[in-house]
Amino acid sequence: MKHPLCALALCASLALPAWGTAFAAPPQPVPSPLPAEVQTLLDKAQVPASALAVLVEPVSARPMPASGESQSASPPANRLSWQADAAMNPASVMKMVTTYAGLDLLGPAHFWRTRIYAQGPIEGGVLQGNLLIQGSGDPKLVHERLQELLQAVMDKGIFLIRGDIILDNGVFSLPAHNPAAFDDEPLRPYNAAPDGLLINFKSVIYKFIPDASGKRAHILTEPPISGVRIPASIATAKGACGNWRGKIQANFQNPTQVSFAGRYPVRCGEQSWSVAYIDPASYASRVIDAMWRGLGGGLTGQVISRANQPMQGEPVATGYSLPLAAIIADINKFSNNVMAQQLFLTLSATDGHKGSFEASRGVLRRWWAGQSQLGALPAPIAENGAGLSRLARVSPRALVAMLQQAAHSPHAETYASSLSIAGIDGTMRDLTDPDLIGRAWLKTGTLRDVTAIAGYVSGRSGERYAIAAIINHPNAIAARPALRKLLAWVARD
User: Fold this and answer.
1) What are the backbone dihedrals phi and psi of residue 487, each rounded to the nearest 5 degrees, phi first?
2) Which 3 state secondary structure label does DSSP give 378?
3) Cα four-point dihedral sign 394, 395, 400, 402
4) How far apart are CA 322 and CA 309, in angstroms?
């Protein structure tokens, strides 16, 4: 079951530099080969064809060679090619590169371990020492699974800790992170920083539930968070639901006090709001403290973060992540940025080495260069692996070649099923074209000045196509209907 926060970790708006300097100038335009209906929608959005790069090829055009065979020198048959070699900002479509590389390098059954050690003797339910919780970068350690892990500690006979709970997130080496730096939206869960011990995406879910009288709405929070005062309820108001978040006048700026100065529209019924905690550095400590005490556990010391602890003590519990196959489905279907970054960092967190963005970029470049289908093409500039970036670049030709390789790989089904199914789930669940519903597997990308789409489309003929289309332009968002029309054109082959 997918966690509710996953659907909220979508790409953010992005203020890119001025168009004249944001992207490399594309080749001088020639008469566009774009379908007329696509060109019409580009014109309506006031986006020139020169701002679009697209490639559509049959998946069968680039089969994987048998062992020992060389790739045929004959080029694949293009169904549509327009500026296919242009290096473009793909926004969240970059997650397709990260997830496929992760599948190939780590395998679909890869999982992360969160280990817990008792650093002292256990006597009569009392741990005489510290409890060490050591993370390995689990991308989806949500509060339900954390609670199960702490319960497992109690099942080992530990109820009182005469010491501290030490949190070790040192598996990654990370730069300082300002959650407001990207788009001045520090409370958006998609701006959460990766972490070696990432708990619940560093966010709090506020649930507003009107009572039977209709005069007040109860406020429930997940997960519990220690040392933060949150009102138990809020007065309600009559009138339309509308922008209920604005109407409640929430203030999340004080790390120890949340307040609501407005009223909750009773017509809204039950609603939820996920908010990144304002002090992310203390989030894990506060949540674990609250959970441990909520389970009935005692603690004489504190919950403190202290990276790079030696694995000393008696192992008392191990929490296993979801397998990578399930992780990439959350990443691709719901465009979860921090989960993508966790996976990207994991690429270099091997053999005792700390994961870092720089090291993972190197791993990705070497992996790309070693692929028979991809090595001759420029490697993507992945930056953080999530596409939440001003610097990320990839060409449609590189994406299509990767999609073709993936379609003939042992991980073909796992990879394709991780993408949003048109009209069914994920970011493409609202697609209503009957020729596309259940017949296209896609990843979308959206930033300010960027809209993109890539994946697989099954045509009426039975042919399956790999497609990558990217628009970089100040009016890119307005041109999104043009990309959807392109998908329909591909399907109606």
Assistant:
1) -60, -45
2) coil
3) negative
4) 25
Domain assignment of residue 68, given as a range: 4-109+324-491
**Radius of gyration of the CA atoms of the chain, in A:** 24
Give the position of tokens 């497609």: 467
Report the candidate in 349, 335, 277 with the shortest Cα–Cα distance to residue 90: 335
Q: How confident is the model at residue 311 (pLDDT cuts 50, 70, 90)?
A: confident
Q: Structure tokens of 470?
A: 């990217």
d(CA 152, CA 132): 14
Q: Where are the beta strands (DSSP E) in 323-401?
A: none
Euclidean distance between CA atoms 85 and 396, whole angstroms: 6
Q: Answer yes or no: pTM beyond 0.85.
A: yes
The arithmetic mean of pLDDT across residues 278-293, rounded, is: 97
The answer to whether 433 and 460 have CB atoms below 8 angstroms apart is no
Both tokens of 159, joined, read: 């109820």
State pLDDT tens for residues 48-90. Answer: 999 999 999 999 865 433 333 344 434 446 689 999 999 999 9
Residues with Cβ within 8 Å of residue 463, at least 6 apart in sequence:
58, 60, 493
Same domain, 255 and 272: yes
Specify the amino acid at residue 377: L
For residues 342-358, b (16+ Cβ closer than 10 Å) or e, as one string?
Answer: bbbbbbbbeeeebbbbe
Q: Are residues 64 and 162 in the same domain?
A: no
- Residue 374 maps to which CATH number? 3.40.710.10
Residue 274's CB is within 10 A of a number of other CB atoms, namely 19
CA distance 390 to 23: 10
409 in Cβ contact with 422 (< 8 Å)? no
Residue that terminates a domain, selected from 269, 286, 321: 321
Is 78 found in the same domain as 34?
A: yes
Are 453 and 440 in contact, with CB atoms under 8 Å apart? no
Could you tell me if 38 and 489 are in contact, meaning their C-beta atoms sit under 8 angstroms apart?
yes
Instruction: Name, in order, each residue with C-beta under 8 angstroms of 479's C-beta and a sequence gap of 6 or more.
Output: 41, 42, 45, 47, 52, 451, 471, 473
Burial readout 450-487 (b: 16 or more C-beta within 10 A, e: otherwise): bbbbbbbbbbeeeebbbbbbbbbbebbbbbbebbbbbb
The pLDDT tens digits for 224-268 are 999 999 999 999 999 999 999 999 999 999 999 999 999 999 999
